[in-house]
Amino acid sequence: MIRLAIIGDPVEHSFSPIVHGAALSEMGIEYEYEKIRVSKGGLGEYIKHAIETKTDGFSITMPHKVDIIPYLEETDSEAKAFSAVNTVCIRDGKLYGYNTDAMGFELSLNDCGSGFKGNNVVFLGAGGVVRTLALKAAMSGAKKIVVINRSKEKAEEVCNIVKSKFDIETETGEFSDEGLCLGCESADLLINATPQGMSGCPQYKNLDFIDCLPKSAFVADLIYNPPMTEFLKKAAAAGHDTLNGMGMLIYQALAAEEHFLNIKIDMKKLYDKIRDKIK
Ligand code: NAP
């Protein structure tokens, strides 16, 4: 039996237990999976508890993805590159950290025949996920990265991090009707990474900026609940290929399971089964 958890604050909304549960059941592995609310500053206490209760590993959501790093014995190359960890394995009382978020998104993007390579990538939002995905986009050969965010300083911070590691053009834009339209004009790949459109969150008041996209642009939303946000509906109605956040959620969980179980998983086969189960 494997003992796993997801920790964060808030954590109640997390679909992780459903996705990990579906994957483990599909593989015929007996498991316990807990959803544990751990507030900022509570990591040390949780880790002690996890070791005492012989927890094998845990997934991490806000606000601990960076704060966990000092507790780790080792991190993988992606976690190092992004300075963020979403998966921790506990082996012999020691903690090992991984990051499967960006890989999860890229795999789901590739499944749709899209990708970062050679593309102008426009991010809406500049939170933790954008920092990770912007670095991944640069790593995978994106041509240019544009970050449009409510607070400009955070957009600039993301661009500066990317530029400090990669020789790539970056730009920030204003989160206004005009700024969004301007940013979209040269986008090959537009990614909504704000919570706008998520159930229970504010909605975009004006989605006209989608009309500014080139016809061939691909449009993704990291939100998976609802599966089709107004943002994606508008993009699909305008003829764009679209992707929601479910693929990222499933793939990052499967990649995490590879670490927890220390096995290689047939990702594509399991992905299709889990997606059908969750539907
Ligand atoms: P985060 O660190 O909290 O950042 C949120 C970003 O959204 C910030 O840049 C913030 O702007 C912006 N924002 C928040 N409310 C807004 C509003 N009402 N209008 C405009 N901008 C707003 O969050 P995160 O961890 O990066 O996550 C971003 C999104 O990705 C969330 O929707 C999350 O659910 C989704 N996500 C999906 C997956 C998946 O597996 N599919 C995984 C992780 C995250 P300011 O900087 O101005 O505050």
What's the SSE blueprint?
Blueprint: E1 2-8, H1 16-26, E2 31-37, H2 43-52, E3 57-60, E4 74-75, H3 77-82, E5 87-91, E6 94-98, H4 101-111, E7 120-124, H5 128-139, E8 144-149, H6 152-165, E9 169-174, H7 177-184, E10 189-192, E11 218-221, H8 230-237, E12 241-243, H9 246-261, H10 267-278
Parallel strand pairs: 1-2, 1-3, 4-6, 7-8, 7-10, 8-9, 10-11, 11-12
Antiparallel strand pairs: 3-5, 5-6
The protein binds NADP nicotinamide-adenine-dinucleotide phosphate.
What features would you describe in this structure?
With 279 residues, this protein is α/β, with parallel strands linked by helices. It is built from ten helices and twelve strands. The chain has a six-stranded mixed beta sheet. A six-stranded parallel beta sheet has the order 9-8-7-10-11-12, sandwiched between helices. A hairpin with a 2-residue loop joins strand 5 (87-91) and strand 6 (94-98). Helix 4 (101-111) packs across helix 9 and helix 9 crosses helix 10. The longest helix has 16 residues, at 246-261. Bound molecules: NADP nicotinamide-adenine-dinucleotide phosphate.
List keywords for this structure.
21% strand; binds NADP nicotinamide-adenine-dinucleotide phosphate; globular; 12 strands; alpha/beta; six-stranded mixed beta sheet; single chain; 279 residues
Query: Strand-residue fraction?
Result: 15-25%
Q: Spell out which ligands are present.
A: NADP nicotinamide-adenine-dinucleotide phosphate
Low-confidence blocks of residues: none
Strand order of the largest sheet: 2-1-3-5-6-4
Mean pLDDT: 96
Shape: globular
Helix content: 25-40%
Strand-and-helix sequence, N→C?
EHEHEEHEEHEHEHEHEEHEHH
Got a strand count? 12
End-to-end Cα distance: 27 Å
